[in-house]
Amino acid sequence: FGISPKEAELMDPQQRLLLQHAWNCIEDAGYSAASLVGSRTAIFAGTGSSGYSRRVDQSGLPLDGTTATGAVPSVGPNRVSFFLDLLGPSEPIETACSSALVAIHRGVRALERGDCDMALVGGVNTLVGPEATISFSQAGMLSADGRCKTFSDRANGYVRGEGVGLLLLKRLGAAERDGDTIHAVIRGTAQNHGGRASSLTAPNPKSQAAVIV
Question: Fewest Cβ atoms closer than 10 Å to its Cβ: which of 23, 149, 161, 201?
Answer without folding.
Answer: 161
